[in-house]
Design a protein that fits this description.
Layout (H helix, E strand, L loop, with lengths): L8 E7 L3 H12 L5 E3 L32 H14 L3 E3 L2 E6 L5 E7 L4 E13 L3 E3 L5 H5 L5 E2 L2 H4 L9 E5 L3 H10 L5 E5 L9 H9 L3 E4 L2 E9 L3 E9 L5 E5 L2 E4 L3 E3 L31 E3 L11 H21 L4
Parallel strand pairs: 1-2, 1-6, 2-3, 6-17, 8-15, 9-10, 9-15, 10-11
Antiparallel strand pairs: 4-5, 5-6, 7-16, 12-13, 13-14
Helix pairs in contact: 1-2, 1-7, 5-6
The chain binds NADP nicotinamide-adenine-dinucleotide phosphate.
The site of NADP nicotinamide-adenine-dinucleotide phosphate has 17 residues, from helix 5.
Amino acid sequence: MPPASNSNIEKVVIIGSGPAGWTAAIYAARASLAPLVLAGDRLTRERMPGGQLMFTSEIENFPGFVHGVDGQQLMSTLQEQAERFGTRVKTHFVSKIDLSDRPFKIHHIDDFNGDPEIVTETHAVIIATGASANYLDLPSERQFENMGVSACAVCDGALPRFRNQPLVVVGGGDSACEEATYLTKFASRVYLVHRRDTLRASKIMTERTLQNPKILPVWHSVVEQVLGNDTDGVTGVQVKNLQTNQSSTLEARGMFVAIGHTPNTKFLVGQVELNDKGYVVLKNGFRSMTSVEGVFAAGDCADAVYRQAITAAGMGCKAAIDAERWLAENGVH
Ligand code: NAP
């Protein structure tokens, strides 16, 4: 590793600016590592600084906020906290990374403002690029996002608009079953709309779901359209039965899409080990270290199971501590 005195080389670059990225930045900055955060360039939804929480109106389960907190507010507070200790931030998107040689090279760009690509060299990297919930890609689905359409029951299910109302969950995997079961705490009933008549979910989740009297499976069906208006938000979901080709309307005040997530890790293919779903694989010794020494990962890009803001923040903390120790062990102060 080259000596740390080369001031053109960053000590640690954090890629991503959700709860994992900002928490890593707070810890790294307080450890005097002067981290650089490449936050995303807001060209598309997936490249939005702040990540998925920028599209969540109210977070009620992030500890410390008795009355909940707006997703955008939480992200800007975390950013301010990170900057207070010396974090530098660029609203740039990482287009390419070269981890084959040291120092690592990160190519980043601000396509939103048309700025040219920059290459930054760094001793350590923390990847915190998150994941993107898969959506059905219907225009009406986007129209009613935050007005009844959600991809996270744990985040949004307890909101007043869903209380004692019929709701729809789309999907047939563990996430869909988990979301449907969770929503039965609040909803009057939950329609589980699945394109086949067999759930992909694990046996135990399948049994628990199908035995729940509040969950009504709607088999062999796909969503054609989300129905609603600007005042009430979602009022129904139009589904088509794939066997009969008949359309019908389910009265519902919300639709939760649970058809999987895609980790934002395309730029890492061939650079660090990813699992078959594209999630970054973490090694056991340094618990946030990836297959490449000096490259750490945190948050939803490395977590297919919990996917909560608070777990991402915890992973960000671990990644920064691991990076700090690794840099110290390798003579970078
Ligand atoms: P998943 O297992 O990939 O299931 C996605 C589901 O959505 C499938 O049932 C699929 O239908 C359906 N689907 C996909 N694209 C669709 C589309 N365009 N229109 C309609 N339906 C569509 O995803 P997941 O449920 O998010 O789970 C991901 C991973 O996390 C899994 O390994 C899961 O076991 C794990 N997980 C575990 C837990 C837990 O252990 N508590 C909780 C959540 C997730 P088909 O079945 O027809 O393909």
